[in-house]
Amino acid sequence: MRPMPRLSFSHAVQALLLAVAVLLPLVVGAYWTHVGAIAWYYALLAASWALLAGYAGQFSFAHMAFAALGGYASALFVEKLGLPLPLAIILALFLAMVMGALIAALVLRLSGPYLALFTLAISEIFRLVLVAEDEITRGMLGLEVPGFFPGSSDRPYYYLGLALVVLCVLGMNMLLSTRVGLFLRAIREDEGAARTSGIDTTRYKILVFVVTSGIAALAGTYYGHFIGILTPNIAILPEMGLVIAMAVIGGIESLPGAVIGAVVVYLLSESLRSYGEWRFVLLGLVLILVQRFAQNGLFPFIERLGRKQRPAPALKAAPVPANSVEDGHAG
Amino acid sequence: MPADHSFISVGGLAKHFGGIHAVQDLSFGLDRREIVGLIGPNGSGKTTTINMLTGVLRPDDGTIAVDGVDMARSPAHHFARSGIARTFQVPRLFRRMTVMENLMVPALSDPSERRASATLRAREILAFLRLDHLADDYARALSGGQQKLLELGRALMLKPRLLLLDEPFAGVHPRLLEQIIDHIRSLNRDGHTIVVVDHNLEAIQSVVSRTIVMTRGRKIADGAVAEVLQDPEVVRAYTGARAKQ
Questions:
Q1: Is A24 exposed, middle or buried (0-12, 13-18, 19+ CB in 10 A)?
Q2: Quick one: angle between helices A237-250 and A63-79, nearest 10?
Q3: What is the tens place of the pLDDT at every residue in A76-89?
Q4: What is the value of pTM for the model shown?
Q5: Residues of A in contact with B141 (CB under 8 A)
């Protein structure tokens, strides 16, 4: 099992970043508070996708479709059925989780590029339905969505988004700390070997799709009610690519890493807005540099740097170098 | 020859891949505490048989009765949970997980197993396999022989009643080969029923009491090792296969 010192350093970094996040709206203006509130939307998506792809090895491209489903369902339940907002949100999440289970059941035998392509097709079909059914969704004109809070301040949304990120990451981490987390990683490593080790892989793959679909829908619901308007562009492929880039840059096998990746990439993207299309070139370069010099992502890289400042025991947790294989006494 | 074969009873097992008959009308039985070799030239259907006996492949026809209950259509995890464990020709470890985590996966797949007792059992098995000093290392960092031992350990964590070892002697250092043979004998003494699939006839002979020989998907002999290896059909199957190579 992994030694504790690594977790301690990781917790210290996370606590520091959380404190900064809590204090940020008090020292920055309304614009950056707004940007921060949107960053939490991406953080929810990147962290839940990291659980799905990084931990469980299910490279789904349907994540943004679930965000769209959550946002649209919640808004339509309020507008068309006149349901109270909390009930509309709960029903939207439930609907997304049921859809997540159905899609998981459909893709059980698929993996790698086949799974990616299948889920991409599902996502595109869903987006095109949103465009085509404009009598219900208002298509590209956009569906107006009521807000959560009265007034025009973005600060309540910022703190709501932050709270959702903290709660979801804590919840997912709790799940990963149980035997379910061990099984998901085993499925990612070798599904066949996991099955012959007694794991009902079908059950756990459906579970992880249900959980991550629910969180993606929660993100979409939060985003829709915050921004006040939803268009089918929420589910376009570049948005999915952005979420994947965020998770990869932050650390695809680390939930806090994916959150940090989302915040860094989105803040960077906004900071570079004056450079127009060039900002995407710069973000691409960041992705390349991270892949080259911090392959596991920024957060694991920071953790490793932190461990190097500490006494020897923490080094044992690092992956064992190939040369230790020679004498059969790795580590 | 054991007469009862009450533990495992395989009847009329068949598996086709397109037009290729990988296994045809295969029947045999296994007694408790028996140790059996399953041999045959390349492509004779040995691994397909193991795959069907562990639920990895679903047979097209036939039965696999475990304690009288047919499990031929059961999923792999049901076989594992009923105490049928296996290793693979090429070790299939959870490479980016530690040695200890590799052992915890099968142990914790049993909902009634507590983490503390599983850890204790894993440490005992690592000591038995002389891998205890590697508990916190990643599986991908182990040598080929150590990976085979770890996979054996992972199978043992299922508390198996039947252990199916697919080519346990292939590609291992002679010193490690002796160690693996010792482990197989020791496990058999502890009450495990074991099936060993391998091409190393010398090693097979040193551990098994009975051998089943397959060629082209069919069983052509079943009996004591010395007798089976004198069987003209077995000799022809082997020499024919060698001549082709």
A1: middle
A2: 120
A3: 999 999 999 999 99
A4: 0.87
A5: 319-322, 324-325, 330-331
